[in-house]
Automatic annotation (TrEMBL):
GO terms for cellular component: cytosol. Pathway: Amino-acid biosynthesis; L-methionine biosynthesis via salvage pathway; S-methyl-5-thio-alpha-D-ribose 1-phosphate from S-methyl-5'-thioadenosine (phosphorylase route): step 1/1. This is S-methyl-5'-thioadenosine phosphorylase. It comes from Mycolicibacter longobardus. NCBIfam families: MTAP (TIGR01694), PRK07823.1 (NF005876). Homohexamer. Dimer of a homotrimer. The record marks S156, V211 as: Important for substrate specificity. Residues 3-228 form the Nucleoside phosphorylase domain. It comes from the Bacteria. GO terms for biological process: L-methionine salvage from methylthioadenosine; purine ribonucleoside salvage. Catalyzes the reversible phosphorylation of S-methyl-5'-thioadenosine (MTA) to adenine and 5-methylthioribose-1-phosphate. Involved in the breakdown of MTA, a major by-product of polyamine biosynthesis. Responsible for the first step in the methionine salvage pathway after MTA has been generated from S-adenosylmethionine. Has broad substrate specificity with 6-aminopurine nucleosides as preferred substrates. InterPro entries: MTAP, Nucleoside_phosphorylase_d, Nucleoside_phosphorylase_sf.
C-alpha cells in the first residue's frame, strides 16, 4: 500500500467512497483517522499531518503514532506533501520541489523508535531515490535542494533566514523531521514533495512571513498540487523494488516491526 501525508491545507485526498480507519498505536492515536481509497490502481492511505482541522502545530504533531499507524496498515511507500518557505528567489511561491537533503534544527521531538538497543540507522540520503525519480519526472517539478527543518511554531528571524541561505539551504520547513527518519526506522520509502508558499524573511527584504499569506498561497495551489500527487502515484510501479530504505538487514531489532 502507498501512503500520502498531507501538510498544511492538505486535509483530504479522496471523495466520499474512501473508507475511514481509526487507529491506535503504542505511541497514542495518530493525527486523524486514516482514509483509504484507490488512485491509479494503487490502494492509498491518506493521513492529514496536522489533523483534519489543523489541530496540531508542527512541534506537537504525533509523528511516531502517525508513522507507526501507516506501517501497521500495510503502507510501505510514502509521498509527503508539505508547505515550505523558499530561501532563494529562484524558487518563487508556487514552485514544487523534491528535496534531496535535509538539515535538522528541531529540538525535543521524539525522533526514534529505538529507545532500547544499539540500533543506528543509516540516514546520509534521507529520501527514497526511487520515489524521488518518479516525482521529479513530472513536468515543472524542481529536482533537489536542501530543506532545513526548524522547530516552529514561529517563523525564522531575518538573521536566521539569511544564515540558512548562506549555508546553501534552499527550503525551510517545520515538519520534515522527524517524519523522514521515523519512516526509515520502519523501513518505509519516503519522499517529501514541497510546495513553496512564500519567500522567507531573509529573501523578502520588505516583510517577514505571515501565516495568513502562507495559507492563502497554499489554497491557491492546492488543487493543482493534489493533481500532481495523483499523477505521481499513477507513475509508481506496483511492486516495490527499492532497497535503499531497508537499513536493518542483519540487525537484531529490539521489537518487531508492525
Amino acid at each position: 500500500m502507498l501512503g500520502v501525508i498531507g501538510g498544511s491545507g492538505f486535509y483530504s485526498f479522496f471523495g466520499d467512497d474512501a473508507r475511514r480507519v481509526q487507529c491506535d498505536t503504542p505511541y497514542g492515536a495518530p493525527s486523524a483517522p486514516i482514509t483509504i481509497g484507490t488512485v491509479g490502481g494503487h490502494e492509498v492511505a491518506f493521513l492529514p499531518r496536522h489533523g483534519e482541522g489543523h489541530e496540531y502545530s508542527a512541534h506537537t504533531v504525533p509523528y511516531r503514532a502517525n508513522m507507526w499507524a501507516l506501517r501497521a496498515l500495510g503502507v510501505r511507500r510514502i509521498l509527503a506533501p508539505c508547505a515550505v518557505g523558499s530561501l532563494t528567489p529562484d524558487l518563487p511561491p508556487g514552485a514544487v520541489v523534491v528535496p534531496d537533503q535535509l538539515v535538522d534544527r528541531t529540538r525535543d521531538r521524539a525522533d526514534t523508535y529505538f529507545d532500547d538497543g544499539g540500533v543506528h540507522v543509516e540516514f546520509a540520503d534521507p529520501y527514497c531515490p526511487t520515489l524521488r525519480t518518479v516525482v521529479t519526472g513530472l513536468p515543472d517539478v524542481v529536482d533537489g535542494g536542501t530543506m532545513v527543518v526548524i522547530q516552529g511554531p514561529r517563523f525564522s528571524t531575518r538573521a536566521e533566514s539569511q544564515w540558512f541561505a548562506a549555508a546553501g539551504f534552499r527550503l525551510v520547513n517545520m515538519t520534515g523531521y522527524p517524519e523522514s527518519v521515523l519512516a526509515r526506522e520502519l523501513e518505509m520509502c519516503y519522499a517529501a514533495v514541497a510546495l513553496v508558499t512564500d519567500l522567507d524573511a531573509g529573501v523578502d527584504v520588505g516583510s517577514g512571513v505571515k501565516v495568513v499569506d502562507v495559507f492563502a498561497e497554499f489554497q491557491k495551489n492546492i488543487e493543482p498540487f493534489k493533481a500532481l500527487v495523483h499523477q505521481a502515484i499513477e507513475q509508481i510501479d506496483e511492486e516495490r523494488t527499492c532497497t535503499h530504505c531497508l537499513p536493518h538487514e542483519g540487525i537484531q531489532l529490539p521489537f518487531e516491526l508492525p
